[in-house]
Amino acid sequence: MLSVPAILIYLLIALVLVIIVAQWLILRAQSRSENANDVWSREFHRLEGTLFETQELVMQLQRDVHEMEKRLGTPLAAPEPLVAQPAAAPVAPPAASPDQPYDRAIELIQQGYGLEALVDTCGLSRAEAELLIKLHRRQA
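Given the sequence above, the corresponding structure tokens read:
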């Protein structure tokens, strides 16, 4: 039979093993937590970058609209949804003369042409074309 000191030695060894396993489990849980935090941190920074890019785009669009208002001398009203394109798309319009792109664009709008036609034909920016459509589509 084992003596008392031998039993104590085995119990101490068992206790040390339990402590080692417990430490290993704690370290493993911490490592997983750190990995999850790294993933969330990377995703947060990616979304933050996307937010900043979107904010810059909105500011640029606001500047474009302001510039268009100055060019046209008319402040914009509240935004309205764009009117749907006509069912039968007209044939591609002839190119606008470089002296009068806005006049040609207004003619095209009144004939039912859409945003892409104005951008391609008259050399307008998307913001300019959208503004002209908002201002002149109602007169068509």
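The mean pLDDT is 78. Try to locate this feature in the token string yourself.
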